[in-house]
Amino acid sequence: RRQKMTARLLRKILVLLFLGLFGVLEATISCRNEEGKAVDWFTFYKLPKYQDKESRKTGLEYLYLDSTTRSWRRSKQLMNSTKSVLGRTLEQLYQAYASKNNSTAYLMYNDGIPKSLNYSSKYGHTKGLLLWNKVHGFWLIHSIPHFPPIPEEGYEYPSSGRRYGQTGICVTFKYNQYEAIDSQLLVCNPNIYSCSIPTTFHQELTHIPKLCARSNSSNIPRRRLTTLQSAQGQKFLHFAKSKSFPDDISAAWMAQQLKTHLLAETWQRNKSVLPSNCSLPYHVYNIKAIKISGQSHFSSSKDHAKWCISKKGARNRWTCIGDLNRSPHQAFRSGGFICTQNQHIYQAFQGLVLYYENCNQTW
C-alpha cells in the first residue's frame, strides 16, 4: 500500500513538472499563430481593399503561412482583431509592458510613426518591432505605416493600412542571435518611437541601447550582411544598407550576392519606380500584378508590400521580405531585407506572381 501511495505521488510530481515545463515553453517570447501557440516563424500578406473579389472587401483580410503549415491559407480573422496573427504576437509586448519586468526589452520603429503624418528621410525606410529576453525573442519586419501603437495604447490596426496590400515576416530567435541583429539595426538606422532596453542587456548589445536613446553614431558601415538562425534552426540572411550605399539594394547587391535573377514586388504608385534591371549578371524584374486565386488579382500599384523571389526555374530559390521599394529616392535611404531558402515560403510567394515586366516586354 505504501508503494502504491509512493507511485501515485511520483506520478503527480511528474505531471506537475511536465505542466510547469509546458507552461515555461508556452510563456517563451516568440512569434504566435492565431491560436496563440508559439511558432518558429510566420509570414502574412494583407490584401488590398476592394481588390479581392472573394473577400469581404474591408481591407483587413490576409493570407497566412507559418512554420507548421505548407501553403497560404486565408485567415478567418481580420487584421484589426486581437485574435489575428499580429494581435496574438503583440499581446506579449503589452503583457511585458504592463508587468514592468526588467528582464524584457523591446524596440518599435517605423518611418511613419503612429498618429503622425510626417515622414522623415533622416531615418531608414524601415518598419518593425523586436521583443526579447535573455532566452528568446522575435523580430517582426513589416510594411505597414503607423503601426503598431505604443504599448500603453494596446493593439490597433491603422485605417491607413487598409487600402494597399501589406506584407510582413516574424522570426523567433534565441538570445544569442541578438548581437548580430544589433549590428544590422545600426546600419538600417530605424526611426524608433518606443523602446525599453534594461541595463542587463547593455553589455552584449552595443548599438540598440544607443539607438533607443537616439544617440547618433558616426561610424555606420555602408552595408552589412549577416546569417541568422531561428530558434528551430531555419537559416536566414539579412541584408542591411545605409544611406551611404546609394544604389538599389535588390539589383546592385541582393541579386548578385544570392546569384539569382529576382522578381521584385514593391510599391509602384508613380512614375518614379526603377525599371527592371538587366544590366548586371543577375537581373531584377518588376512584378506588375498579383493573383490570389482564380480570377482574383490586383495591380502592383495597389500593393505597398516589399518582397522578391528567385525567378521560376532558378537553381537558388530565395524569398526576401523587407523594407525598401525599387525607387530612385529610396536608393538613398537605409533599410534591409531578410531572405530565406525555405521551400514553402518560396512556393507560396511564387504562386502569387501573375505577370512581371522584363527589360523589354511584359511576361
UniProtKB/TrEMBL annotation:
* GO molecular function annotation: deoxyribonuclease II activity
Reactions catalysed: Endonucleolytic cleavage to nucleoside 3'-phosphates and 3'-phosphooligonucleotide end-products
Record GO cellular component, one term: lysosome
Which Pfam family, an example, fits this chain? DNase_II
Which controlled-vocabulary keywords does the entry list? Answer: Endonuclease, Glycoprotein, Hydrolase, Lysosome, Nuclease, Signal
Q: Mind giving the lineage of the organism this protein is from?
A: Eukaryota, Metazoa, Chordata, Craniata, Vertebrata
Q: Which organism is it from?
A: Rhinolophus ferrumequinum
Q: What is its EC number?
A: 3.1.22.1
Describe its function.
Answer: Hydrolyzes DNA under acidic conditions. Does not require divalent cations for activity. Participates in the degradation of nuclear DNA during lens cell differentiation.
The encoding gene is DNASE2B
Return the protein name: Deoxyribonuclease-2-beta
